[in-house]
Structures are given as structure tokens and as C-alpha cells.
Amino acid sequence: MQSPVIDSAKLEAFAMRAIGDVTAGYTGVMVSLGSKLGLYRAMAGAGPLSAKEVAGRCGCAERYVREWLNSQAAGGYLVYHAGSDTYELSGEHALVLADEDSPCFIPHAWNVPAAMWADEQLAIDAFRSGDGVAWGEHDARMSCGVAAFYRNGYRASLVPQWLPALDGVVSQLEAGIEVADVGCGHGHSTLLMAQAFPNSHFSGFDTHAASIGAARAHAAAAGLSSNLAFSLARAVDYPGRRYGLICFFDTLHDLGDPVAAARHAADALAPDGTVLLVEPFAHDRIEQNLSPVGQLYYAGSSVMCCAHAISEGGKLVLGAQAGPKRLEEVFFRAGFTRFRCVAETPFNRIFEVRR
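Below the sequence we write its predicted C-alpha cells.
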């Protein structure tokens, strides 16, 4: 056998790319620390600050804070002013790092890779055996991180953009209809709709008991109880009929039998009802998904989405990059006849489905 000819420039470039990915992992730890210690919030809108000033604002030790600040400056997260030996968090970066209500806020999302590392042996065993890993088997940071990752995006888009894109649904919600949120997780999407449309009633369903507990706690904190409820139920047998709207928020591709879930939705819908399907952004062909967003979703799908679908029997394991054509096929097999994309973001595609 002949040894392959190694292009040293390509080798060096890829090795540096790999080091960059390792550096990103280190940076995630720094971002999480900065968020939990209040370092970013202390710097937001404050202009240039010394390490001592940042530490004093957060009640932290200056020597640790200085090293953290230097790591953030090296990564371009903060600006370092050498003349005054101060550090500054720009307004744009504050929206990503300090403002928990911003649709760009990212620190909580680092809980997901932390959970992925904690669950590494689960993944190794699953890859070797072909067995599934149910959502509830993961480290608790998984569900928290995923919920937080999507929460602010839903807050920015669900009520003002996605629901109005559905034909006639907003007027129905305003008048009062029954709504099912299937796979509701921590209930952020359910709460947003319940707050916006008090005349409608919202039922959130999930199979993960801890997530249902979190959803109920969020509802109590928001003072909502009269027009929503959260219950343990599967996507193929949740109770109720004549729902005016059934929602699947980043859920369908996680299910072991998405066609059965779509058929149950068809049976549970009112005659003029609508399915709102929100799925990870994806194209239909693998080569079209070879991007940072695709890399993120394929990785998550490897250890979360496919693993859970397999744990539910895996009749059709879509994965997080199923693409519009495969999603449309699922609903057509379930008896629906209309399927259209009504909106998209860098992370999601939003579909309206009707019988």
C-alpha cells in the first residue's frame, strides 16, 4: 500500500480548525461562568471597567476575574483597552451574553454540550447496541438547556410572526378555541400563547415528568392557571377532540412513530383545525445541510433526537435534519392534504398543515 501524500498546508489548516473547536468548548465554560456569576450583567452598559471594578460589582475575587476577562478578550467577546487596562462589553454582545430576554441570548444553551459530555457513556453504549436513550435518561441539564435555547426564539417569533402566518388562526384564538401543545417540554411555547390569547384554552402534553413539573412551575410563576394545564401524555394518545390548533414545537422528529402522531392529530382536530409544525431548519439533501447550523443539529440528533425516537420503537427515525419533503410525506401518509412553509429563521422552519 502506498502512503497518502500529505499536503502540509491542508494539515496545518485543519489542525488549527480542530484546535479552534476545542477552544470553543473552553469558551463555553467561560460563558457559563460569566453568566452565572453575573459578570456580563455587571459590564452591560457600563463602558470600560477594570478587573477590580468588575470583580467588585459581582462580589468575586479579582485575580480570577482578571483571568476570565483576558480569556474573553482573547476570544473577541470583550474589548480590551490596553491604554487604560480596562475591559468593555459592547451593546451588541450584551444582547447575546447579558440580556436574558433577548432572542439572541446564548449562555443557557451551553447546558446542552455539558449534558452531552456527562452522558457520553450512554451514547457509546447506544451506538454499539443500537438501543435508544429516552429523554428522561439524560443529564438534567439537557432538558433545561434545550428549553432555554428555544425559549427566547419562540418569545420573539411565535405570537407576533408565526401564528399570524397561519390562515385564520389568530382570529380563532382570539374568539376562543382548544389548543394542544404536543411535546411541550418546559411549557415556554404554551405559556406564550396562553398569555396572548386568554379566551382560548391550552393543554401542554409531554412524556417527561420533570419537564411537566417545570412547566407547571413556570405557569404558577406567571400567574396562569385558568386557561392552561400540563399533563403527562404521549403524542399518539393525548386526550381531547376538536382542537382548533395542535402544535408540535421541535418535537415531531424526536418521536418513534411520527406518522402515528400525525394520524392522532388528524383525529383530534376540529373540522377546520390547523397543525402548527415547527422543526429545526433543514434542507432536503445532506450536501445542502453542511453548515454550522447543520453541524449543530446533526450532532444533537446523534445523541438526543435519534436516540429518543429509537427508545420509542423507532418506526421512522427522522432525525433533526429531516427536511421539508420527508416532513410533508409524514403528514400526507396520515391523511392530511395541505402542507406549506409559512416562515423560517436561521434555526427553524415553520409549517402550516391542514386536512
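The chain is about 50% helix and 15% strand.
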